[in-house]
């Protein structure tokens, strides 16, 4: 397991995320087809394929600046609603930790806090609306609490992943308020949201690399 993240580890996380989006492409498409247009899986696969290839070519030594670059290429490769939210998260989060040569639990907490606030601002959304916010926001809170308690990076990301899992489960019982899913109103209650699932996958990518379980092409997330 890792106690801090360097640029090479950020590259590993992006390849982990690329593999995870590939593995879950069908799931994301199926979830999105229930209350959306069904292209979420393809969008995320394209976004993280381009991002992973970009970081592999990059010689940027600063993790924060590399994460900003990730957001920029995702914005260009996937200019959809979800692509824009994810891109904004990476750019805002990367900017917030731009001066840091290493990412420990405190820096990761700052990254996720800035990322989710950027997503909320860009999407004009908040926790409780059945979106990607409902998994990323609780993960960010868990990271802040872990950092405040001076817990190690592995413990912090473990708490964040558990919080994201709980957030996904809780989001099932929420009523969609934004996007095409909002048209379904009460009918959206009880259904798993594709955006919230993407949020869990993002946290999972960091979790698996930090805990030493990445590099195997990602992991499928059950519906």
Give the strand content: under 5%
User: What gross morphology would you assign?
Assistant: globular
**Overall strand count:** 0
Helix content: 55-70%
What is the CATH superfamily? DhaL domain
Sheet/helix structural class:
mainly alpha
Q: What CATH architecture do you see? A: Alpha Horseshoe
| CATH level-1 class | Mainly Alpha
Low-confidence runs: none
Task: Write the CATH fold name.
Answer: Serine Threonine Protein Phosphatase 5, Tetratricopeptide repeat
Q: Biggest β-sheet, characterized?
A: none
**Tally of DSSP helical segments:** 9
Description:
It contains nine helices and no strands. Helix 7 (133-148) packs parallel to helix 9. It has a single domain, classed as Serine Threonine Protein Phosphatase 5, Tetratricopeptide repeat (Alpha Horseshoe), CATH 1.25.40. The relative contact order is 0.17. The protein has helices spanning 7-23, 25-35, 40-57, 63-77, 81-96, 105-123, 133-148, 153-171, 194-210. The chain is mainly alpha-helical and 223 residues long.
């Amino acid at each position: 397991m890792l106690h801090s993240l360097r640029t090479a580890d950020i590259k590993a996380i992006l390849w982990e995320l690329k593999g995870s989006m590939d593995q879950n492409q069908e799931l994301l498409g199926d979830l999105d087809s229930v209350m959306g247009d069904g292209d979420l899986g393809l969008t995320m696969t394209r976004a993280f394929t381009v991002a992973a290839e970009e970081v592999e070519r990059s010689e940027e030594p600063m993790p924060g600046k590399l994460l900003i670059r990730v957001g920029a290429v995702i914005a260009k490769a996937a200019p959809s609603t979800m692509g824009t939210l994810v891109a904004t998260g990476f750019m805002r989060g990367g900017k917030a930790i731009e001066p840091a040569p290493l990412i420990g639990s405190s820096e990761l907490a700052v990254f996720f806090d800035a990322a989710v606030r950027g997503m909320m601002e860009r999407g004009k959304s908040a926790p409780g609306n059945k979106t990607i916010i409902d998994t990323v926001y609780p993960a960010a809170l868990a990271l802040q609490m872990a950092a405040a308690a001076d817990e190690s990076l592995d413990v912090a990301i473990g708490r964040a992943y558990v919080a994201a899992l709980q957030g996904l489960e809780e989001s099932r019982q929420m009523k969609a308020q934004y996007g095409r899913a909002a048209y379904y109103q009460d009918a959206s209650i009880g259904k798993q949201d594709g955006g919230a699932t993407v949020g869990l996958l993002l946290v999972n990518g960091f979790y698996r690399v930090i805990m030493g379980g990445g590099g195997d092409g990602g992991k499928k997330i059950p519906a």
